[in-house]
């Protein structure tokens, strides 16, 4: 049986780096980067290039790409898009290539590049994602992007949801995954209510972007499977 482990914060990533090439990694930034990437593909985006800095996204704008940048939860001034899934509408992104930089999510993607496969996970595509992971049968690392190297609730709850969905097919190898599964069981009856105490949800409230929370907590509504490969993200499954 393949195993599942969980990285609860990017600060712990170095512990897993050596074993990466035989494993699947799921990068998790529920609020909001990995959710936004799923929505963009569901609405017809062609490709998403995760980049480190706003300047890198701006450089791609010169080549006809949409430039998207978020820092501290806000759209960086002068960019076409920020990181709200509600802004990645069909009218805005269909057929487009997007260069995206966010505070934590795009960094976690780039950190994972040595893995066998790097998948983009969100509640919206959880079914498509878990179907793929079951088929592949490789060891799995659930990588929570967190917030500036710190643990966060929403990514951990999602890691627990994935581990629960795969529990019949995978062996849980570490206590981080067990803790994530326990947290998911506690949060699952009402994810929105449970996550009201999360630090990033409070950040949303101060930025008046709370409506994004509902969008990010929709479960298995999108049949997309974004994969980060050779430095860029493409959808392996059509919506
Ligand atoms: O951390 C990230 O990558 C972002 O998802 C943060 S935010 O939700 O856009 O504030």
Keywords:
alpha/beta, 239 residues, 36% helix, binds (2R)-3-sulfolactic acid, globular, seven-stranded mixed sheet
Describe the structure.
The chain has a single domain (3-221), classed as putative 2-phosphosulfolactate phosphatase, CATH 3.90.1560.10. 36% of the residues lie in helices and 20% in strands. It is built from 10 helices and 11 strands. The chain has helices at 33-42, 54-61, 90-93, 105-111, 126-136, 153-166, 175-187, 191-194, 199-207, 211-216, and strands spanning 3-7, 24-28, 47-50, 66-71, 74-75, 97-101, 117-121, 140-144, 171-172, 226-229, 232-235. Helix 6 (153-166) crosses helix 7 (175-187). The two termini are 30 Å apart. Bound molecules: (2R)-3-sulfolactic acid. The site of (2R)-3-sulfolactic acid has 11 residues, from loops. (2R)-3-sulfolactic acid is lined by residues 29, 31-33, 70, 73, 83, 102-105.
Count of the domains: 1
**CATH class value:** Alpha Beta
Instruction: Using the CA coordinates, give the radius of gyration.
Output: 16 Å
Order of helices and strands: EEHEHEEHEHEHEHEHHHHEE
């Amino acid at each position: 049986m393949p195993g599942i482990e969980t990285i609860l914060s990017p600060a712990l990533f170095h512990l897993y780096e050596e074993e990466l090439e035989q494993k699947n990694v799921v990068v998790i930034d529920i609020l909001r980067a990995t959710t936004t990437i799923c929505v963009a593909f569901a609405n017809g985006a062609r490709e998403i290039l995760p980049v480190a800095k706003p300047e890198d996204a701006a450089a791609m704008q010169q080549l006809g790409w949409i430039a998207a940048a978020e820092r501290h939860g806000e759209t960086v001034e002068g960019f076409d898009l920020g990181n709200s899934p509600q802004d990645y509408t069909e009218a805005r992104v269909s057929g487009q290539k997007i260069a995206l930089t966010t505070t934590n999510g795009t960094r976690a993607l780039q950190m994972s590049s040595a893995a066998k496969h790097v998948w983009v996970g969100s509640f919206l595509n959880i079914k498509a994602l878990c179907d793929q992971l079951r088929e592949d049968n490789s060891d799995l690392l659930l990588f929570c992007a967190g917030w500036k190297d710190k643990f966060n609730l929403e990514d951990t709850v999602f890691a627990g949801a994935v581990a629960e969905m795969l529990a019949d097919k995978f062996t849980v190898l570490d206590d981080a995954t067990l803790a994530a599964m326990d947290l998911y069981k506690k949060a699952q009856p009402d994810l929105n209510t449970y996550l009201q105490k999360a630090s990033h949800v409070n950040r949303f409230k101060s930025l008046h972007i709370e409506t994004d929370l509902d969008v990010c907590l929709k479960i298995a509504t999108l049949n997309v499977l974004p994969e980060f490969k050779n430095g860029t993200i493409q959808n392996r499954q059509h919506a």
